[in-house]
Amino acid sequence: MTDFHLNELDRRTFLATSATLIASTNMLHADAPPLAPPDKQPAHLQVPEVPSKTIGFAIVGLGQLALEQVLPAFAKCKVARPVALVSGHPDKAKKVAAAYGIDPRNLYNYQTYDKLADNREVDAIYIILPNSMHAEYTIRGFKAGKHVLCEKPMAISVAECTEMIAASKAANRKLMIAYRLRYEPFNMLAIDLCHQGELGKIKSITASHCQDVQAPNIRLSKALGGGPVGDVGIYCINAFRYLSGEEPVDVTATEYQPQDDTRFREVPESVAFTLRFPSGLLGCGDCSFGTAESRCFRVQGGNGILDMESAFGYRGQRLLLHKNGRLSEYQLAPVDHFAAEMDAFSESILTNQIPKTPGEEGLADIRIIEAIEESIRTGRISAVRH
Ligand code: NAD
């Protein structure tokens, strides 16, 4: 029998949340006095302050992620707001602008992109383009004097990442890589538990991120920087690093590219990799574009095991601790990952702090991806060049 229980941490979170819920339920109770007009609200009512300064974003690329996740997430943001769009499809851009209350004068295409420099409403640019275009549009964004939030993977080579970081420094503008899970409570709690020694010494982490990708898709194009490692395998790589707090020494990897499936003419279907870390920790990851969805990790330590279901998904995270013969599940309030990430970047701009996932964080993953590619090419262990 599985024994689910709340540990102390969960109980505290639960009590705090219940207290908030009870308070708000009481306010809506039928016996409550009639609501006071807005200008005569009781002094004890806490009304959130309107942020004195918000960060205006230009969204670059109106593809699936931008339309289905990022733009809807602005409704949940506290300080980030959409003010401009960059798209090669003017009709789509007009429709999207109307839906999100964006001034039609703030619509750009890839030829007029650099004119963002003259738009004072735009503080930051969010690059949501194919991976092979991340470096060019990030660097041009810095030349336009804007801060840049760039989707993962940061770019398609270490050389490009290095140029992007240099451009950020030259422009004195911030660069953040959109690792949304670093702003998501279940992954953040997993990091704390691992770093605080809840599992004892961590010996291995296994992680899997797979999905069934149908053509046509930028992920199946080599020229656009596709392939499973940069697209989904990178979540496993990033998780090994954020859960362990270590950087890997070397990598072994292997891939499979079927000859009888036209989707995989340019990129492999599946890649498996093992990273060795200085402490002796092994990180074993696999990624595929040809299976049903799988997005999980397991951290195995001397004193316990931590499992995360839907670890890399947009929602549905479940964090489970196996320790001392018991299985516990942590209860946390989920958040919109993209809203959390865009607000965090905005706060780092407003307070002039380095973002939690700066360019160097994206570069560290691309160094590992280059070592994975080298290991596949040579059939040998490849050192990660830090
Ligand atoms: P998509 O193919 O749906 O969108 C790509 C956009 O780029 C489209 O609007 C397309 O018109 C535009 N584009 C401009 N020039 C292009 C060209 N030459 N060829 C092809 N498209 C061109 O892709 P997507 O799923 O929205 O992914 C975009 C980026 O977001 C990728 O870098 C991907 O890795 C990243 N992404 C991140 C997450 C996440 O959870 N953080 C999830 C999905 C995608």
Query: What is the alpha-carbon Rg in Å?
Result: 23 Å
Give every kind of bound small molecule, once each: nicotinamide-adenine-dinucleotide
Number of helices: 9
CATH fold topology of the largest domain = Dihydrodipicolinate Reductase, domain 2
Task: Specify the helix fraction band.
Answer: 25-40%
Low-pLDDT windows of residues: 1-6, 8-32
CATH superfamily of the largest domain: Dihydrodipicolinate Reductase, domain 2
CATH class of the largest domain: Alpha Beta
Taking the sheet with the most strands, its summary is: 9 strands, mixed
By helix and strand content, what is the structural category?
alpha/beta
Strand content of the residues, in percent?
A: 15-25%
Shape: globular
What is shown here, in short?
Mean pLDDT is 91; it is low at 1-6 and 8-32.
